[in-house]
Specification:
Elements lengths: L1 E3 L2 E5 L3 E7 L16 E5 L1 H11 L3 E9 L2 H12 L7 E4 L5 E7 L5 E6 L8 H7 L7 E2 L9 H4 L4 E2 L3 H8 L7 H8 L7 E5 L5 E5 L2 E5 L12 H14 L4 H15 L11 H6 L18
Parallel strand pairs: 2-5, 3-7, 5-6, 9-10, 10-11
Antiparallel strand pairs: 1-2, 3-4, 7-8, 11-12, 12-13
Helix pairs in contact: 1-7, 7-8
Length: 292
């Protein structure tokens, strides 16, 4: 995801999600029964683009879908959200991407993705779309090693715990102290923002570590919360706020996202500013005092 002024360009996947609610997530070799399957638009790139659009950003999505009914549904859903799709190419060489998601009673999930057309996104697709965009932030998901020379070109990197472990060539840290230790080992980026789920986020900027707690909400489904976080972070950074203040905004947007089913349930700016489940207003950089 890149940001400049109030415009955001997202390079990422566009999938159809098939989500099933289960009492408990299956273990290897285990079959569990669940509820009715729900089909909805998803994909990390599309999720972030929709979330940013709902927060008031002008958004363009760079990616690919298949020349099939699924691809047409996905494109129509993005158009309906006001996301620019001029750089979302249709290909006949692969079907549209598909994600199979199991969500347990606590809102935790397991996801398997068949990338399909997403795997065909080429460097020239990105270069054309980003010709006038400034690369401000990147979310390295799914987790994979990122070359050091690429890290040096990144201003803000947004991994979760697992992705931080992959970036650091180390096991996933189990607690905040472990996250802090690994975060300080990531070199080259100007700022690092590690998402911690219900524990909020950890920001490392200029060697200074700041923990940003998340508000308490009733979690229904965590699918797409990380994508909403990235979108909100880019939104606030693009509006000129510091990375720490942007992270404060992002954890609140992500928290609201977990209170509804689906991957594209990020709230509008007005919904976040109106208040949380306890009735208290969510602070936004530039509006009242930042909390946390």
């Amino acid at each position: 995801m890149s940001a400049g002024s109030t415009a955001v360009t997202v390079v990422g996947s566009c999938n159809e999600d098939i989500t099933v609610a289960v009492d408990v997530l299956p273990q290897p070799g285990q079959t569990v029964l669940g509820g009715a399957a729900r089909r909805s638009p998803g994909g990390k790139g599309a999720n972030q683009a929709v979330a940013a659009a709902r927060l008031g950003c002008a958004v363009e999505l760079v990616g690919r879908v298949g020349d099939d009914d699924t691809g047409r549904r996905l494109r129509a859903a993005l158009d309906a959200e006001g996301v620019g799709t001029a750089a979302l190419r249709t290909t006949t060489d692969a079907p549209s991407g598909l994600a199979m998601i199991a969500v347990d009673a606590d809102g935790e999930n397991m996801i398997v993705v068949g990338p399909g057309a997403n795997a065909l996104v080429a460097a020239d697709d990105v270069e054309r779309a980003l010709a006038t965009a400034a690369a401000d932030s990147v979310n390295p998901a799914p987790a994979r090693p990122v070359p050091t020379d690429l890290l040096r070109r990144i201003d803000v990197l947004v991994p979760n715990r697992t992705e931080l472990g992959v970036l650091s060539d180390a096991p996933t840290p189990r607690d905040r102290a472990g996250v802090e230790a690994l975060a300080l080992r990531v070199e080259g980026v100007r700022a690092l923002v590690v998402t911690l789920g219900a524990d909020g986020a950890l920001v490392v900027d200029g060697g200074r570590i700041t923990h940003v707690p998340a508000p308490q909400v009733t979690v229904v489904d965590t699918t797409g919360a990380g994508d909403a976080f990235c979108a909100a972070l880019a939104d606030a950074v693009a509006r000129g706020h510091s990375v720490v203040d942007a992270a404060r905004w992002a954890v609140r947007v992500a928290s609201v996202t977990t209170t509804a089913w689906g991957a594209q349930t990020a709230p509008t700016r007005a919904a976040v500013l109106d208040g949380d489940t306890a009735g208290a207003p969510f602070p936004y950089p530039g509006r009242g005092r930042s909390q946390g």
